[in-house]
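FORM 7B: Structural annotation worksheet

SECTION A. Query
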Amino acid sequence: RSLSGGEPTIIPHGNVVRVSGDGHPKESSPFINSSAASDMEKSQQYDGKSMALFEEEIDTSPMVSSLLSSLANYSNLPTGSKEHEEAENNEEGSRPSKKPAPQLGTLMGVYLPCIQNIFGVILFLRMTWMVGIGGVFGSFIIVFMCCSTTMLTAISMSAIATNGVVPAGGSYYMISRSLGPEFGGAVGICFYLGTTFAGAMYILGCIEILLIYIVPQAAIFKIEGLEGPEAEIALLNNMRVYGTIVLSFMAIVVFVGVKYVNKLALVFLACVILSILAVYAGIIMTALDYFTNLYNETITTKMWRSFCDSDSLNATCDEYFINNNVTEMQGIPGVASGILAENLFGNYLEKGMIVEKRGISSNVDPEIPTTNANRYVLADITSFFTLLVGIYFPSVTGIMAGSNRSGDLRDAQKSIPIGTIAAITTTSTVYMSCVILFGACIEGVVLRDKFGEGVNGNLVIGTLAWPSPWVIVFGSFFSTCGAGLQSLTGAPRLLQAISRDGIIPFLRVFGHGKANGEPTWALLLTASICEIGIIIASLDSVAPILSMFFLMCYMFVNLACALQTLLRTPNWRPRFKFYHWALSFLGMSLCLSLMFICSWYYAIVAMGIATCIYKYIEFCGAEKEWGDGIRGISLSAARFALMRLEEGPPHTKNWRPQILVLVSMDAEQNVEQPRLLSLTNQLKAGKGLTIVGTAVQGTFLDSYSEAQRADQSLRKLMETERVKGFSQVVVSSNMRDGTSHLIQVGGLGGLKHNTVMVSWPQNWKQPECYQQFRNFIETVRETTIASLALLVPKNISSYPSNGERFTEGHIDVWWIVHDGGMLMLLPFLLRQHKVWRKCKIRIFTVAQMDDNSIQMKKDLITFLYHLRIDAAVEVVEMVRDSDISAYTYEKTLVMEQRSQILKQMHLTKNEMEREVRLIQSKNAATPTSPTSPTSPAATPAGGAVAWRDSKGPDKGMTDSLNFSGFRNQTDVRRMHTAMRLNEVITKKSKEAKLVLLNMPGPPKNRVGDENYMEFLEVLTEGLNRVLLVRGGGREVITIYS
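SECTION B. Predicted structure
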C-alpha cells in the first residue's frame, strides 16, 4: 500500500481493503467464518465508526453511544393511576399514545401527597381525647416516639430510593429488591393489609363524623333513651350498616374511574390544610378572648333542670348531683388561662367511669348504677398508655406516598428524600404543637370527652376552631372520605404488583384486571378485607391492627438499609448521603418496640402472618434473583463459615456423609441411574453436602452446550428426587479423567465431599463394557488414596423409590472388617427416612476358629448400646476349611481365562504380536500347559481328582488338589473366601431388604482387575440389594457425647 498526496492507493491482491468516505481504510475479517453478505452488511454498518475489531460481538455488546442514548431516554413506568387514566381515555384497539416524560416536582409529587396521607382521621377525632387521657407529657412522648420512628424510616427509605431507579411500587419494590422475594412478599402483604385496614379506619371515621356530629337523626338503630352497653351496640351497628354502604359506594367509584379520585385529591388536601389552619386560628382567638372576656358564670336553673325532675327546691334530684358540687365551667379557657399545668399528667379511666375534673374527688355511691342519659359523660373504653400508642400511630403513617409515585417524578432521587423528610418535619411539628396547645387551651374534662357530649354534642376540636366548628366537621369529613378512596385505590394496585411478580402462586389471579389494567379482582379482595374492619366497627379497635402492619413494613425498610450498609455490596451507592446503619437499627428497634407496646398479641399475630407468607414463598414461590441483601448475607456468612471450616478437620461427632454422587448420562443427556439420587435422598438425615456430578466427553469449546443440557438434566432430576445439593458437570477428553477431576476438585474448602457414591457396572463382563469397569476400579483406587469413603450400590434399579414404603423387613449389616464405623452409621441414617423406617437393623460379624464368639457378641451389644443404635446382633462362626472345593478351582480358572480373553481383545497390534511371541516361548519351555485341572501339572501324584458338581457343602468327598498349576495361588484363596462368605450371607440375609457389606480393596497391581470384579460378583451373588461400603480411613462414629 502506498500513499501519495494523501490519496489511498488500493492494491488489488491480498485482503480486500475498502475505503470509506472519511479516507480510513477498513478490512473485512479474513479469520472469522462469516458469509460475504454479512461481512458487507457489518462493514457498512460500522463504516466511519472505528468499530471493526468488535463487529462480531456487537449483538451481545452494543456500542456505548447507543447504550447511553437508550439509558438517557429511560423513563419509569408507574403502576399508579396515571397510565390507567390514559388507558381509559384511549379508544379500544388504538395504539396508546407515547407517555409524556414525568413532570412532577418535589412539592406536588412528594411533599403534598405525603402531607395528605399523614394528616388524617386521628388528628380530628382522637387527638384531643389522647391529650386529655395521657396528659400533655405522656402524649408528647407518644407523638415524639412515633414521629422519630417515621423520620428514621424516611432516612432509610431515602437511602434505598436513591440507590438507583425505583419503579413504582414504592415500599414493596424497595423491600423485595433489597431483602429478597421472601421478605418482600411477606412485607408486601403486610403493607397491603395495613393499607386496606387504613381504608376501613377512614371509612369508620367518616361514618363517626356523619352520625355523631352532622346528622345524628340519620341513625338506623336509635341511640336516644338507651344506656350503657345497649347504646354502645346500637352505635356499632349503625357504623356497620353505614360503613358497608359507604365502602360499596367507594369501591364502585374506584372501579368506574380512578381519574375522579385523583382529580378530587387536591380538594381533599385543601380541606385538611384549611381545617388545621382553622384550629390554629381558633387557638389564637381563645388567647384574645381570654384577655377581653375574663369572667366566670353559673347558670343554676338550667343545670337544675338537667339533674332534677322539677324547678322547685324540694324536687327529686340525681344522687350524684346531690352528693357532689356539680358546676358549669368554661370548656375552652384559652392559652393564657394556665390550664396547661392541670393537663400535664395523664388521667386514665376505667370503662364506665364518670368523666370529671382532675384533682376534685367525687362522692359516688357504688350501689347506685350510673347512667349517661343526657347527664353524665362516661368513659366508653378502659384506657392505658399502650392503647393510646396503638390508636395514635396510624396518624403518622403515609410516609411512603412519595416513593409510591416515583414513576411520576421528574427527578425521583432528589425529590423523594427532600419531600418526604420535609413532610414528616412539617407534620411532626404540627402534631407536637397540637399536643401542647390542646393541653394549654381546653379544660381537661372536655379533652377527655371523646364524642363532645359535654359541649352540646360538638366535635371537641371543632369547638376550638375559628370561625365555626363546622369548618372542622366538614373538613375532616371530606378528608376522611378522600383518604378512604386513596386507600381503596392504592391497596389493589399493590396487590396487583405482588401478584404480577409471581412470588406468591395462589395470588396470581389478582394480577389480572380490566382491559385498561384496572385491578378488578384485587379491588374485590380489598373491599372484602376492608369489610372485616368495618364489621369490627370501632375506630379504637381497628387502629392498632393497621399500626402493626405499618410498623412491620417500616421495620423491614430500616433492616434493608442497615443490611445493605453493613454488607457494603458494590452496588450500594445511594445519592442520599445522610444515613448510617446505626440510625437504621435504631429505627428498626423503635418499630419492634412500638409493635409490642401497642399490642403484644396483635404483634405476634402480624409476625405469624408474615412468617407464614415467608415460609410459603420459600417452599412454593417462584425463584427470583433480585440481587437482594439476604443473598448478600448468605454469601458473607458462607464465606465466613468456609473460612472457619478450613481451620481443621471436623471432629468425629460432627462427621456426616458429604456425598459426591457420580452418575452417567445417555446419548440424550438423561441420567442412566436415577435411583442413585433416590438412595442419596434417603441418606439425607446426615444433613451433609450433596454434589451430583457427571462427565461429558469432548472439548470444552465443542461440548459446552452438551454440558449445559447435562447440568439441566441433573438439576431437574435432583428436584424430582428432592435432593438438596449442587450439580457439577465437567468436560474432559475421556470419561476416566472426567471422573477423576470430579473426585479431585468437587466442593470448596472445608465443604468438600468425604464420600463417593458410584453405581456397580452391571454389564462389566460384556466386551463393550471393558472400559467401564476399568474406570470403576480406578475410581475405587482414587477414593482409597484420597481417604474418601465409597458407597457402591449393586442392582441399583431394584432399590426403592422415595414413594415406596417397607412395612417390615431387615437391613442386614455384615461387619467383617472395621473401617471407621460407616457400616454402623449408614443403616441408622437410612432408618430416619420413611422408606426404611419400619425395617429392623441386624448386625452380623464373623468369628474365626480362635475367637470367643460369645464374648464377641457381648462386646458388640455393649458397643451398640454406647453408640445408641438399636440393632439385633449375631456372630457367625466361619469354620476353618483347609480343603478348597474343586468348584472353587473351576470358578478361578474360568475367571482367569475370561481375564485373558478380555485382555487379548483390548491389545494393540504391536502388543498382540508381543503376546503371541511370549506364549510361544512359554509353550516351548512347558509342553503341557495348565489349561485344565485334569492336566498332569494340576493332578497330584498318585491322587484321584474328586470334583464337586455344586457349590454346596462337601458330601463326604475330600478335595486334595494343590494349586501349583495356577499362576496365582492368591486368586484361589480369595475365590474360596468370597464363596464361603457368600454362602453364609445368602443363608442369613437372603430375604433382607438391604445388605450392607465391607467392600474389599482392589489389587495393588492392575493385572488382577478383572479377577477383583469377579471376586465381588461371587461375594454378592444371589442377593437382591447390596450396598458395598469402604471407609475413608477415619472414625465416623463415636460413643462419646
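SECTION C. Observations
Residues 1032 and 1040 are 20 Å apart (CA to CA). Residues 1-37, 74-97, 291-300, 925-967 have pLDDT under 50 and may be disordered.

SECTION D. Sign-off
Analyst initials: ____
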